[in-house]
Specification:
Length: 314
């Protein structure tokens, strides 16, 4: 019989609530002196000693103005590379940072992966915090932040769990911009690391863990500020699994207000996201993700009757 308790089926996921640990300059320098690359999901990602950067900004950048975003060239300015599984296009955090923060504001990406969000923080002079469950991801992030630029904002990196941001003060963050795994569609650590949400196979379990991520996001964010999450859907056993709709509901239940639902078009669809081949089964190929922009209400903000509706309290 299938067991549904997280404790029973997934000790790997449920057990890691250890404290965040900051990765110091010394630890990074030692690591890079001993490693030329790290391996993320069977792919070698090189660590570079001296980055040669020819372009620090995207050419002809324009802020997005509609709810459909599409970046076919994905962007490779500064140290952005696109070689980390499922990393997001730097155009996404650039748009979010420019639209929702001012210089010196504090930006958090608690599933920072290869550091795309923090590279944009450095280029746009925002302070940053990056967290990832995987030390190797943090080392890639540190390596990609290891370049000289006219700005040098305070950027801190931690190994830690997005469900327990214990070293981040309550109501201290001005923007959250993050890109969680979509349940187990793409695995990042091949079950090696406790707490890796990309190893959660059961969608209900994944949603339960995302509830904890939402709760911590709500705690650390200042009132009135924004929390942006990029998430996608999948198909399993010939049906559509609406992960995005369920994640949306979780964030609304926590108390966030939905400000934007942006459709992000996808250009490279890995077969891992489409196990059921569209032509064979007459499905449409999934070619979009949702970028939800939530806002934490101000203290004593008068919410609309819709937001106060009992439906969220069920
Ligand atoms: C989609 S990737 C993020 C990619 C990132 N936006 C980039 O551009 O490189 C998701 C990341 O979440 C991390 N992760 C998985 N479970 C986590 C958890 N419980 N807490 C923090 N990070 C986690 C994975 O290690 C992976 O690096």
């Amino acid at each position: 019989m299938k067991q549904n308790s997280l404790n029973l089926i997934d000790p790997l996921i449920n057990s890691n609530y250890e404290s965040m640990r900051e990765i110091t300059d010394e630890e990074y320098k030692k690591f890079i002196s001993e490693h030329q690359f790290v391996v993320i999901e069977n792919t070698k990602v090189p660590l570079i000693q001296n980055h040669i950067i020819t372009q620090f900004e995207p050419e002809n950048f324009k802020l997005e103005t509609t709810t459909v975003w599409s970046f076919p060239d994905r962007g490779d300015w500064a140290t952005h590379k696109g070689d980390y599984r499922a990393n997001w296009s730097p155009y996404i955090p650039r748009n979010l940072i420019l639209r929702y923060t001012d210089e010196s504001d504090l930006v958090l990406d608690q599933m920072v992966g290869s550091g795309t969000t923090l590279i944009e923080c450095k280029l746009l002079n925002r302070r940053g915090i990056g967290v990832d469950i995987n030390l190797d991801a943090i080392m890639i992030t540190r390596n990609r932040l290891d370049f000289n630029y006219k700005y040098n904002p305070a950027i801190k990196t931690y190994v830690g769990d997005a469900r327990n941001l214990d070293l981040i003060e309550t109501e201290s963050v001005d923007l959250i911009a993050t890109h969680p795994p979509y349940a187990s569609i793409i695995k990042f650590t091949n079950n090696r690391i406790k707490g890796d949400l990309s190893c959660v196979r059961n969608i209900d379990d994944f949603i339960q863990e995302m509830h904890k991520v939402a709760k911590e996001s709500y705690r650390v964010l200042k009132p009135g500020k924004h929390c942006c999450i990029l998430i996608g859907d999948t198909r399993k056993r010939k049906h559509f699994v609406p992960i995005t709709a369920r994640v949306l509901e979780v964030f609304l239940r926590i108390g966030f207000i939905l400000r934007e639902d942006i459709i992000k078009l996808q250009w490279k669809m890995k077969s891992t996201r489409e196990k059921w081949r569209s032509s064979k089964y007459d499905f449409l190929l999934l070619a979009h993700e949702h970028l939800y922009v939530f806002r934490k209400p101000e203290k004593n903000e008068r919410l609309t009757p819709y937001k106060n509706s009992k439906i969220w309290k069920l």
